[in-house]
Amino acid sequence: MVPTVAWLSALAAGVVCAVVVQRLCFPYFWTDVWFLLKVIRYGARLERFQLTSSVRTVLDRFVAQAERIPDKPFVIYEGAVHTYRDVERRSNRLAHVFLDALALRKGDCVALLMSNEPDFLCVWFGLAKVGCSVAFLNTNIKSKSLLHCFNSCGAKTLIVGSDLVECVDGLLSALREDHIQVWAVRSPSEGARVPTLLDKVEWASDRPLPAALRATSSLKTPTLYIFTSGTTGLPKAAVITHLQSLKAAAGFWAFGGTKDDVVYIPLPLYHSAASLIGVGGTIELGATCVLKKKFSASMFWTDCREHGVTIFQYIGELCRYLCNQPKTELDKVHKVRLGVGNGLRQDVWQEFHRRFGNIKMCEVYGSTEGNLCFMNHIGKIGTVGRSNFMYKLLFKYDLVKYDIEKDEPVKDQRGFCQRVNRGETGLLLSKVSASSPFFGYAGSKQLTEKKLMRNVFRKGDAYFNTGDLMTEDHEGFICFRDRVGDTFRWKGENVATTEVTESLGLVDFIQEVNVYGVEIPRHEGRAGMAAMILRPGLTFDGRKLFEHVMRELPAYARPLFVRLQEVMEITGTFKQQKFHLVQSGFNPSAVSDSLYVLDYQQKSYIPLTDTIYHSIHAGQRKL
Fold first, then answer.
1. What Cα–Cα distance (Å) separates residue 309 from each residue in 256, 289, 327, 465, 573?
2. Where in the sequence is the signal peptide annotated (predicted)?
C-alpha cells in the first residue's frame, strides 16, 4: 500500500511539474494545438474534395444553408432584413435572366461593378449558379484602368450597379467596340443608354437551376478575379480558385465564430477581405452579417449596438478612425468580442483596447493572390501571426536576408538566398508546391512570373515573394516590419516606415501620419519625411515633436521633414498612398501644404522656408 501511495504521489508531483514547466516555457502550447487541429481538420475536408473530385463550393454551402435555415437573417442592410431564402430566390431569378436574356453560359467571365448592397451578393451568386466566373471591379477605377481590366480577365459582359451607371457612360462606345455587353441593375428609365435587369428579374422564375451548371470537379478551378489596387501600375487580376475561397471562408470559424454571431462588414465587397472572409465566413457559420454601403466611424458603434454585432472586420486604418471619434459613456457598451482583419498598428491596438474594451483582435496576414496565411489566434498585440514547428510542417516559408540599398535579397557564393536568425528582419518567401500553389494573375504570365523567385535555396525550387519584411521572435510570433520599397536607408541604416509611424502616432496632437523617404542632392539614401494630419482643436507643436523623436527614435530614423495635410490620400481599402508624396518631395515652392524641418540648434521643427530649402539643396546645411 505504501509503495502505491508513494508512486501516486510521485506521479502527481510529476504532472504538476510538467504543467508548471509547460506554462512557463511553452505558455501557448495547448492553444496552438487546438487551433492547428482545427486547421488540419478543415484541410482534411478540402483534401477529401480533391480525392473524390466532388467539390463542395462556398456557393454549395450557401444553397445548403438556405435549405436548412431559410428564415434566418443572412444580410441586414440599411435596416432591411434579407433572409437566406430571400437571397437564394433572388439569385435564382437573376440566374435565369443571365441564362435566358443575356445568353451567358458556363465558363463565361462576367465583370461586376457594384457598390456594397444585397444585390451585389444576388448577382454574384446568380452568375455562379450559371457557372460563370466573376471579376470584381474596384468602384474607384477610371477609364483606362477599367478597359484594361476586361483585357486581363477576358470578360465580355459588364454588370453595373444603379449608382455607378453614369461612371461608365463615357466608356460605352469603347466597350461596345470590344463587343462587351453592359447591363444595369436598375429598372428602365427614360433616355437610358444601358439595358436594365430588374424589369426582367420581376418576371423570372425563382426555381433552382440544375446543380450541374455550377458544379466543378477541381478545387483549382477559377471562380473569381479580384483586382489589386494598381497604385504602382495598372490593376492586376488575381486568380481566385475554389480552394482559396473555401480557405478564406473558414477564417471566422477558425477564430471561434459560431452560428449565433452577427458579423459587421464595412469594407468594400470587391475586396477579398469583405467578400471571401466576410461573406464567405458568414455563410460557413450560418450566421448573419450587417452590410454597410460605406464605412462610417460615427455610426460604427451605434450600428453594433442596434444589431447586436459580435464580430467586425477591419483593414488598414479603420480602427484608428474609431479611436479618433469623440469619447462617450457608451464606448464599452456593446457585444463585440472579436475583430478580424489586418494592418492594425500597435499603438492603435492599445488605444482601441483602452477605449472599447478587451475585444480580441485577430490579425490575418496574407495577400489576395498569395499562397501563405498567418493567423494571430492568440491575439497578442503587435503581431500578425503565430508560428511553431507544427505550423512549419504544414506551411513552408522562410525569412531571407535583404539588402535595402540594393533592393534585392542577399545571396551567398553559390547564388542562393540566406536565412535570417530568429529575431532578425528578413524578406518573407513562401514555397510554391502542390499543397501551397500560386495561381498568379489572369492574362499575364509575365506578371505571375515576376512574383516568383526561383532557385532560392536549391536549383529548381520556387517561392512566392510577398514583398514584406517580417520578423519572427523567439516565441514564434510573426511581426510585420515594412513593405519592400517603403523601408529606406539613411546614414547607413535601414529605416522602417511602419515603426516610425507607430512612434509618431503616440504624439498627442497627431491624428494620422504617413512616413516615407525623399531624395536629397549630395546625400546617399533617402531622408525621412512625415505627412501628418492634426487632431481637431490641436495645433502643431514643433518643440514637443522634437523632444519626442529625440527621446524615442535613433538619429537616422528621425523624420527630417514634416508636411501638414488636411486630408490623407488613401486607397478604397484605407491603405495610405505614398507615391505622390514621395514624388512631390519637400520643395516649399512646389508644395502648397505647410512644411517643417528638423532643427537641432533651435531644438524644434521649424518652418521650411525657400532659403532653408536652397541651402539644403546646395549642401550648405548640415543634416
1. 15, 8, 20, 37, 21
2. none
Distance separating alpha carbons of residues 296 and 351, to the nearest angstrom: 19
Pairing verdict, β 594-599 and 561-564: antiparallel
pLDDT at 231: 47
Q: Coil, strand, or helix at residue 471?
A: strand
What is the sign, positive or negative, of the torsion defined by CA atoms of 433, 437, 440, 445? positive
Residue 92 has pLDDT above 80, yes or no: yes
Residue 575 scores a pLDDT above 90: no
In angstroms, rounded to a whole number, what is the distance separating the alpha carbons of residues 361 and 590?
Answer: 42
Domain 58-71+86-240, CATH 3.40.50.980 — does that match? yes
Rounded to whole angstroms, how far apart are CA atoms 194 and 493?
Answer: 57
For residue 546, the 8-state DSSP code is H
Task: Please report the pLDDT score of residue 403 as a whole number.
Answer: 87
Nearest to 102 by CA among 213, 201, 217: 201
CB 291, CB 264: distance < 8 Å? no
Mean pLDDT of all residues in the chain? 89
CA dihedral for 204, 207, 209, 215, sign (positive or negative): positive
Nearest-angstrom CA–CA distance, 450 and 595 = 38
pLDDT band at 285 (very low <50, low <70, confident <90, very high): very high
Start-to-end Cα distance in the chain: 82
Compute the average pLDDT of residues 341-364: 91
Nearest 10 degrees: Cα torsion 326, 329, 335, 338: 40
- pTM here is 0.82
Cβ 170 vs Cβ 194: under 8 Å = no
**The pLDDT value given to residue 32:** 86
d(CA 229, CA 318): 18
Residues 6+ apart with CB under 8 A from 12: none
**What CA–CA distance (Å, rounded) separates 240 from 223?**
6
Residue 274 DSSP label: I
Q: What is the pLDDT of residues 160-175, one digit of tens each?
A: 999 999 888 888 888 8
Instruction: Tell me, letter by letter, the H, E, C secondary structure of 442-466.
Output: CCCHHHHHHCEEECCCCCCCEEEEE
The pLDDT value recorded for residue 200 is 94
Of the listed ranges 88-97, 255-264, 383-392, 486-495, the least confidently predicted one is 486-495
The full set of domain ranges for the chain reads: 58-71+86-240, 387-482, 492-617
- Is domain 387-482 in CATH 2.30.38.10, yes or no? yes
Tens-place pLDDT, residues 19-33: 444 454 446 888 888
d(CA 396, CA 234): 31
Percentage of the chain modeled with pLDDT above 70:
93
Q: What is the model's pLDDT at position 5?
A: 56
Q: Which of 331, 591, 16, 307 is nearest to 610 (CA)?
A: 591
Asked if 102 contacts 94 with a C-beta cutoff of 8 angstroms, the reply is no
Q: Which CATH architecture has domain 492-617?
A: 2-Layer Sandwich (3.30)
DSSP string, 119-152: HHHHHHHHHHHHT-EEEEPPTT--HHHHHHHHHH
